[in-house]
Specification:
This protein is an alpha/beta fold. The protein has a domain of 111 residues. It has 13 helices and 14 strands. The strands form 2 sheets. Strands 3-4-5-6-7-8-9-10-11-12-13-14 form a 12-stranded parallel beta sheet. It has a two-stranded antiparallel sheet with strand order 1-2. The longest helix is centred in the middle third of the chain and has 14 residues. The chain is elongated and about 75 Å long. The relative contact order is 0.06. This is F-box domain-containing protein.
């Protein structure tokens, strides 16, 4: 189900209706709670929610990503239902990307949920600092959670991100999937490792020690966290922020086959150098099909020699025969345009490479690949 509108419509007539969306052209409407219920006292207004309770039990999956519900609908409804009321008592999957504030959304959390995808950010006008009570409630109620996707807007409060990770670690002994992303007003600005390094290391040591999927976008993973990931035999898909990580060559010394089961990897570094080259060379998986490198530093000119060295390294790694997609994502658009065919040419010798991910490539590169490597599909986005 992709909306809570059908559930709202189970309330008695007179308590809900269609409301005009302000400043919409052409005029459009969304469903919401009438002001009569908004200002009514729960003591004097007896709201019959029996139909709501009946039909909500049949919902197994809910995705809220659009604006067909009036903002604050759940906020207005909350005082008129029991404090322990679950709007989705049997739902197993919840995707919550609201465009309004999050007041009242805690009633969407239920004990049967095993997968949650939630966005706390610009779209709903709140940062993680204003949403900690909601997130804590989520961890308290959803005790059977196996997969959590969290996109956070931290507004410069990195310690809030660290605090949330501590809550997750304390509530969940095991997660199969954990995706964490922390956005900020300043483009490219990551979380301060001072507040996030220990919490994320603790997460990887405990809650995510056997995870199959893990991602940390704009949240730096320290060296000991990298070791935890590298030694996890279940890890299949990983995205890691290495912008502030000491990637010393000896990091993987003594580890038998780091990242041995990976199928997909994406990592970010400030710039391509010997350390990132060594990191790629230490991935021992023989089944990796996708590798993407994000280059975050916008102040450095592209080192074509070092880029070429990374491409050459791909001919030597254990996954050379399984790699189908390789990608480079530069923070600075001009670096993308500086990527030349000569630097990439060894990539096309890999037996199964079929896609190259590169945003804003130069026209010359596009033409050359089309002429010399017609089987290569050049893409500008990946899922």
């Amino acid at each position: 189900m992709d909306s809570i509108v059908p559930l709202i419509k189970t309330l008695p007539d007179g308590f809900w209706g269609l409301h005009e969306i302000p400043h919409s052209l052409p005029i459009s409407y969304h469903t919401g709670i009438h002001d009569a219920l908004r200002y009514a006292s729960p003591v004097t207004t007896q709201l019959d929610i029996s139909r709501l309770e009946h039909y909500s039990r049949f919902v197994r999956e809910l995705s809220i990503t659009e604006n067909n519900v009036k903002p604050a609908t759940l906020e207005y409804l909350a005082p008129h239902v029991p404090s322990d009321f679950y709007l989705l008592p049997r739902a197993r999957i919840l995707k919550l990307h609201p465009s309004s504030n999050l007041d009242g959304f805690d009633m969407l959390f239920g004990p049967a949920l095993v997968e949650i995808d939630i966005q706390v950010g610009r779209g709903n006008w709140e940062s993680i600092g204003h949403s900690m009570s909601l997130l804590t409630r989520m961890c308290t109620v959803c005790t059977n959670l196996e997969a959590l996707h969290m996109d956070m807007y931290h507004n410069g409060s990195s310690f809030r991100v660290g605090t949330f990770m501590q809550v997750v670690q304390s509530m969940y002994p095991r997660l199969r999937t954990l995706h964490l992303s922390a956005d900020h007003d300043s483009e490219g600005d990551r979380c301060d490792p001072e507040f996030t390094s220990k919490p994320i290391s603790d997460l990887l040591r405990t809650t995510c020690s056997r995870a199959q999927e893990f991602s940390s976008v704009k949240i730096p993973v320290p060296a000991d966290g990298i070791i935890q990931l590298a030694t996890n035999p279940n890890l299949r898909d990983v995205t890691i922020c290495l912008d502030a990580t000491e990637l010393e060559p000896r990091l993987f010394k003594g580890i038998h086959r780091p990242f041995c089961a990976l199928r997909a990897m994406r990592f970010s570094v400030e710039h391509l150098d010997e350390r990132s080259l060594s990191f790629v060379g230490n991935v021992s998986s023989r089944i990796l099909t996708r590798l993407i490198i994000d280059v975050e530093d916008a102040d450095v000119e592209l080192d074509s020699t070092m880029l070429h060295a990374h491409i050459l390294k791909l001919q030597q790694v254990p996954f050379r025969d399984t790699l189908t997609l390789f990608g480079l994502d530069f923070e600075h658009a001009e670096l993308s345009k500086a990527v030349g065919y000569e630097a990439l040419e060894p990539l096309f010798d890999l037996p199964h490479i079929s896609r190259l991910f590169l945003r804003r490539p130069s026209d010359e590169l596009v033409r050359t690949i089309a002429e010399k490597q017609p089987h290569i599909k050049l893409i500008d986005q990946v899922s």
